[in-house]
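Morning, I've got a small favour to ask if you have a moment. It would help a lot if you went through both lines with me. Thanks so much in advance, here it is.

***
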Amino acid sequence: HAPSAALLDRARRGRIGGVLIHKWNFSSASELRSIAAKLQQAAADGEQPPLLIAVDQEGGEVKTVSWIPPTLAPPEIDSADTARSQGRKTGAGLVGLGINTDFAPVADVPASTSSFMYQQGRTWSFSARKTSRLANAFALGLGDKGALATMKHFPGLGLATKNTDDFVVHLGATNSQLAPGLRPYRRAVADGVPLVMLSNALYRAYDRSHAAGWSRAIGTTLLRGRLGFEGVTITDSLDGAAGARGI
């Protein structure tokens, strides 16, 4: 419920670039603001850049801060205007609490109802075009209010039927089968999205040995080389990947 002395020292010394806050780390708005303020003050005291202070605020079941928007889950949003409005309201709510980064929106395009992301109610549409339009509208809305959006989970989890937090997921799809999952990211790069989260799945068409989060072929050659992304990349939750591998 408060940053430890060790964590604050790491922030002062520039050993960390950001912090993810979970819903169990706070019980009120004032407590959340205090956590964020203490972390940023430590970075400032060490003459470091401001920290990325993040939460998962997708909407629906995935909302770290329960009392602020989005008030609609992605499947409930049908227009770009609504998506951008929800993004703006979410961004304003987060910034008011000292949170500057949202690990959202999800940009995964489910291939069928067997997609675990679809079953969790976290996807926008089965259409790559519509997913691209709505996810990027939400991201732009966050940016309108000064919050940083994070498109996830690159290069797409729409074909995964098992949760990458619980299983080692190998996707044997071809390049053409994976192509629709890239469409939201092409638009995001054009829109200047600041962060992209890499998935924990392994994509045999791109890299037979490494999951996306630690694959040069995916994070560098594909995302930065082919798509032209110049922002920040982060991994998905590594405790989930480690647990799935029995570490």
Remarks:
- The chain has a mean pLDDT of 96.
- Residues 29-45 form the longest helix (17 residues).
